[in-house]
Amino acid sequence: DAGITQSPRYKITETGRQVTLMCHQTWSHSYMFWYRQDLGHGLRLIYYSAAADITDKGEVPDGYVVSRSKTENFPLTLESATRSQTSVYFCASRNREWTGELFFGEGSRLTVL
Amino acid sequence: AQSVTQLGSHVSVSEGALVLLRCNYSSSVPPYLFWYVQYPNQGLQLLLKYTSAATLVKGINGFEAEFKKSETSFHLTKPSAHMSDAAEYFCAVSDQGYSTLTFGKGTMLLVSP
Fold first, then answer.
1. Test the B interface: residue of A4, A10, A25, A43 with most B CBs within 10 Å
2. Over 60: is that where the pLDDT of A1 sits?
3. Nearest by CB to B43, which of A44, A98, A104?
4. Mutate to test the interface with A, among B48, B93, B105 (most CBs of A within 10 A)
């Protein structure tokens, strides 16, 4: 089925390890986004991408790396995980034409011990 | 910079009662405004949007919101709450030329029998 999928849905890791969260969408949407959701902070934008090979920082990019070699994939890497990166991460996508709607994945819950 | 403020991290209502979730925005240009809903363990989904057409906007599941420029508000209402409305609700803002949404911190709606 078409949609946006994230993997893994749950991940436990240790401080200092590298972690990659995957995001795949089947709509051929131009824009893709990574948000993190934390209690008391709502959703905060980490990085976004307007097209393949085009990425830009959001509100909280420090400690994260993204790439977009293919339109359908937008992986998020934590190069050296810290406890403050314990969060729920959401990937989202939208059409190039701005209708206002973002389509969200189901989230990846990451715990850094 | 744009921002939204949601008043009240939790709102409790009885089934059948009026639902009122408050959102105030700050934007230097005419904004686009949105309400998203998040059910437990799911991603966000669009409830309704204001994009400079009618100031009273109707969304899914009987929700509506009114854009009031003089009050810089975009409050979400529903005449009669159902148990199934229990979820977290996010207000979001974007200007007409910007690529991303800025979310509020969210309001958890609790519905009691």
1. A43
2. no
3. A104
4. B105
d(CA A15, CA A5): 26
| From A48, A90, A100, residue closest to B43, measured CB to CB | A90
pLDDT band at A109 (very low <50, low <70, confident <90, very high): very high
CA distance B34 to B26: 13
Top-confidence residue, B103 or A96? B103
Structure confidence by residue, pLDDT tens digits, B2-24: 889 999 999 999 999 999 999 99
Question: Taking 90 as the threshold, does the pLDDT of residue B65 lie above it?
Answer: yes
The tens digit of pLDDT for each residue in A36-56 reads 999 888 899 999 999 999 999
Could you tell me the end-to-end alpha-carbon distance of chain A, in angstroms, rounded to an integer?
A: 35
Q: What is the mean pLDDT of chain B?
A: 91
Beta-carbon-side half-sphere exposure of residue A106 (alpha carbons within 13 Å): 10
The label of the residue with tokens 């991290």 reads B9
Amino acid at A94: R
Q: Is the distance from CB of B107 to CB of B13 less than 8 angstroms?
A: no
Q: Please report, to the nearest 10 degrees, the dihedral formed by the alpha carbons of residues B113, A40, A106, A23 taken in order.
A: 170
Please tell me the distance in Å from B44's CA to the nearest CA on chain A: 6
Residue with token string 């790439």 = A67
Candidates B5, B2, B3; CA nearest to B107 is B5
Closest-CA residue to A89 (of A25, A48, A54, A43) = A43
